[in-house]
């Protein structure tokens, strides 16, 4: 079902649809429509129908989408019907906040390792985690076949950490360090820098 | 200089350019080029030149950009040469992490108020903040002319909180609650949901 021909911009919207469907299911809805989804998401219903048609179409014209079915299909397309192991690099202020955020595990992303380079931090507990030395990350990531990592180190170390992760088989990086990473095309990077989001809004403030 | 005719997609890239320029300045560079910026950011140099040309062009062909000047111009365009007050709604796990993140104040966004509805939390300290009752938010936001707020409440309360904020004059919302908000066109919303970023990457993992 998944195909490499699907534009990335379409893929980027699927998690948003999935989140809305999970919300609708929580609210005990059983059926929805591209109109209802569009209204909730501020996306045109035509766009939603077009996006979903890339995957063969999940609903019949006029009868709407069965939420449980569409949700399950999207979870399979996005490969989030399974549980994923995630490594976290950096146990400073930002890394600690990330490690304590419960939203990851609730949605199938389990932080199984936290690494740091500081001898003061190594061996300490961070929530339910024990902080491990970053030197051991390459071996552990390979052994446990961990493909997803989050970077929460200072900007100047982020590129080096990314290269270590990639050499150890990581193919998806969520980067909290406020810097762009150079990675080969087979590696996917997403960025979380809330200040960038604030700065693009202040432009519009008068 | 700023004009409403600039596409939002261009505006969305300006903070990324600004961040790269600040990094270059930290590394003691004085001049850069669209090629160097493009290489750092994974954006074509043609795109960068085109984006910056919306604002009258900041460099001369062939001589590159003076970093200090371009940085200052971008800060003015984005209105981040000033300091902004920000209200934070929600002092749970997520709100606490947001309140403790130092990156906001370092880049001119000062959380000046933290509001919550829980009688257990009101009056308590959160880092350097004292948690205030959410009932007082409308009055305080109006009095202090706060235009920016961050929402870190459970999903089911986020829309109601957004409506209260908008009625009190807030025009830019950074929403950490995992739900889409319906807001009038004069209000800008940006979303932070790291799980969505992970989910759009797992699609590509094999």
CATH superfamily of the largest domain in chain A: NAD(P)-binding Rossmann-like Domain
Oligomerization? homodimer
State the name of the first-level CATH class of the largest domain in chain A: Alpha Beta
Q: What fraction of the residues of chain A are assigned to beta strands by DSSP?
A: 15-25%
Greatest contact pair?
Answer: A-B, 59 and 59 residues
Number of domains of chain A: 2
Helix content of chain A: 40-55%
CATH topology of the largest domain in chain A: Rossmann fold
- Uncertain runs of chain A: none
Number of helices of chain A: 9
- Tell me about the biggest sheet of chain A? 7 strands, mixed
Report strand order across the widest sheet of chain A.
5-6-4-3-7-8-9
Number of strands of chain A: 9
Q: Which structural category do the helix and sheet elements of chain A fall into?
A: alpha/beta
* Topology pattern of chain A, helix = H, strand = E: HEHHEHEHHEEEHEHEEH
CATH architecture of the largest domain in chain A: 3-Layer(aba) Sandwich
Description:
Two copies of one chain form a homodimer. Chain A is α/β, with parallel strands linked by helices and 206 residues long. Chain A folds into two domains: 3-77, Arc Repressor Mutant, subunit A, CATH 1.10.10; 84-196, 3-Layer(aba) Sandwich (Rossmann fold), CATH 3.40.50. In chain A, 43% of the residues lie in helices and 18% in strands. Chain A has a seven-stranded mixed sheet. In chain A, strands 1-2 form a two-stranded antiparallel ribbon. The relative contact order of chain A is 0.10. The model of chain A has no long low-confidence stretch (mean pLDDT 92). At the A-B interface, helix 1, helix 2, helix 5, strand 9 and helix 9 of A face helix 1, helix 2, helix 5, strand 9 and helix 9 of B.
